Automatic annotation (TrEMBL):
BP GO terms, sorted: L-histidine biosynthetic process
Cellular-component GO terms for this entry: cytoplasm
GO MF terms, alphabetically ordered: histidinol-phosphatase activity
InterPro entries the UniProt entry points to: Histidinol_P_phosphatase_HisJ, PHP_dom, Pol/histidinol_Pase-like
Organism: Synchytrium microbalum
Gene (UniProt): HIS2
Source organism phylogeny: Eukaryota, Fungi, Fungi incertae sedis, Chytridiomycota, Chytridiomycota incertae sedis
Protein name in UniProt: histidinol-phosphatase
Compositional bias ranges of the Basic and acidic residues kind: 399-417
Keyword Secreted appears in the UniProt entry: no
Swiss-Prot/TrEMBL keywords: Amino-acid biosynthesis, Histidine biosynthesis, Hydrolase
Pathway in which the depicted protein is active: Amino-acid biosynthesis; L-histidine biosynthesis; L-histidine from 5-phospho-alpha-D-ribose 1-diphosphate: step 8/9
Residue ranges of every copy of the PHP domain listed in the record: 5-210
Length: 466
């Protein structure tokens, strides 16, 4: 079915390629029924900039200007290019790095009269989780393991879903990108089921996102175990290629079709506008028989079962990081110091594990109960302060051109080099975050300063003011 409500272009996204008009023209040429332009919302702080943006001299202010330019150009192209058979919509993909981002989404949506939003979470503990293996391992090291990363991610997702009620839920289980073989514990599955139930209640569409196949995963997002939970909860699905340029439009839609057939999904949904300009949900039935698949050569020419087709996209399992000897954190921006948690005196950040967490204001997404009226919704799945001891100062980490990550460095477009700061955290045996219980055995990141080109070695027993 020719639908995608999630797309980007290199004109307004530095880790994408091509011009926005090229992306639109490709979708029209393939006779998409509905195609959404959903550029990322601008990030608000210097430390959130990616290296390619730093190298280009960009700033949060210039990101805002770029997004405004996107809005202007997208509206022009929608007016100029839309056809009777292809509906073009103006969307926005969310960021949820810190609590304030949710209010920023609402502000931007009202300011620009955006048709719909793709509700996505790309960060855990202010660190991008979809960039590369090293960055993902640094989150695990910071939080004490993969299980906690999953819990924080799905709690953050819930907070985003509760406040924003996005029309489209983006790459639901993106947290599995570098840990596809990590089993879902009963606690994590409980969080997932809670999120699914809320999506079903407010009526959101969950995208089946084919970009996971470009990352060499075995299926689109969401994976089959979660997809079956969604089907049981009567979730409405839409389709997305999450294209990052014209060559990505309808990327792996042949395997996506197989995935729909394998899971007995016969209807998907798109968005449309009525005569009053109101965005509505439209159902498309008997999708596997749509001529789109054969017209665009998206049905394999050789006979194969859907499972055989998807098998070609399986990915070698990546084992979770287990106490790496060195955790290298490279930061192109953002002053930082690292101290052992026991050396910091803030009572707010160091509430005892015996204290009730329900009265503590959230510091980072997913770490505490949200400000929702029904706080009991989160009580059984809190991530305590001893599990996530990270200040609002945050940190920007290295973004490499890892093939699996989404930020592919464009050497021909990025000129010059920027020296980067490196912090190396050496983990000793029997030290570090183990049980998520002891504040004395964890780290917090606080505001400070590190001179450029300085290497800082942090021992677990040290308290360094750099």
């Amino acid at each position: 079915m020719p639908i995608s409500l999630h797309s980007h272009s290199g004109q307004y996204c530095q880790h994408a390629h091509g011009q926005l008009e090229q992306v639109i023209q490709k979708a029209i040429a393939m006779e998409f029924t509905c195609f959404g332009l959903s550029e990322h919302m601008p990030r608000s702080l210097d430390r959130d900039l990616y290296p390619e943006e730093v190298q280009l001299g960009m700033s949060p202010s210039s990101l805002s200007t770029t997004y405004q330019d996107f809005i202007t150009e997208a509206r022009r192209l929608i007016s100029q290019c839309q056809t009777p058979t292809t509906t073009l919509l103006l969307g926005m993909e969310t960021e949820y790095i810190r609590i304030s981002d949710l209010d920023a989404v609402s502000t931007l949506r009202a300011l620009h009269n955006i048709d719909y939003i793709v509700g996505s979470v790309h960060h855990v503990a202010e660190i991008p989780l979809d960039y590369n293996e090293e960055m993902y391992a640094s989150i695990e090291s910071l939080l004490g393991g993969t299980e906690t990363v999953f819990r924080v991610y799905f709690n953050a997702q819930y907070e985003m879903l509760k406040q924003l009620k996005p029309e489209v839920v983006g790459h639901f289980d993106l947290v599995r990108l570098f840990r596809p073989e990590h089993g879902l514990s009963d606690v994590v599955m409980g969080l997932i089921e809670r999120n699914i139930e809320w999506i079903a209640e407010y009526g959101g569409l969950v995208e089946i996102n084919s970009r996971a196949l470009k990352k060499n995963l075995g299926s689109p997002y969401p994976f089959r175990d979660i997809l079956q939970k969604m089907i049981a909860n009567k979730i409405k699905f839409t389709l997305s290629d999450d294209s990052h340029g014209p060559n990505d439009v309808a990327m792996h839609y042949d395997k996506l079709r197989d995935y729909l057939i394998e899971n007995n999904i016969t209807s998907v949904y798109s968005l449309a506008k009525d005569q009053d300009g109101k965005v509505t949900v439209k159902e498309h039935s008997n999708i596997s028989a749509h001529p789109f698949w054969s017209k665009n050569c998206l049905i394999p020419s050789v006979e194969s079962t859907p499972s055989e087709s998807l098998a070609t996209a399986t990915r070698t399992a990546t084992s979770p990081a287990s106490s790496p000897d060195l955790v290298a954190v490279v930061r192109p921006t953002s002053p930082l110091s690292i101290k052992s948690a026991s050396s910091c005196a803030s009572p707010r950040m160091h509430a005892s594990k015996h204290n009730s967490m329900s009265d503590i204001e959230p510091k980072l997404p997913g770490s505490y109960p949200s400000n929702n009226s029904n706080r009991s919704e989160m009580d059984s799945s809190l991530v305590s302060e001893s599990e996530l001891v990270v200040s609002e100062a945050g940190v920007v980490h290295n973004h490499s051109d890892d093939e699996v990550g989404d930020h592919e460095k464009k050497e021909e477009e990025v000129k010059g080099e920027v020296e980067e700061e490196v912090v190396v955290v050496e983990k000793q045996p029997d030290l570090g975050v183990k049980s998520h219980e002891s504040l004395e055995e964890s780290y917090i990141i606080t505001a400070g300063s590190v001179d450029e080109e300085e290497f800082v070695i942090v021992e677990p027993d040290d308290a360094l003011d750099c």
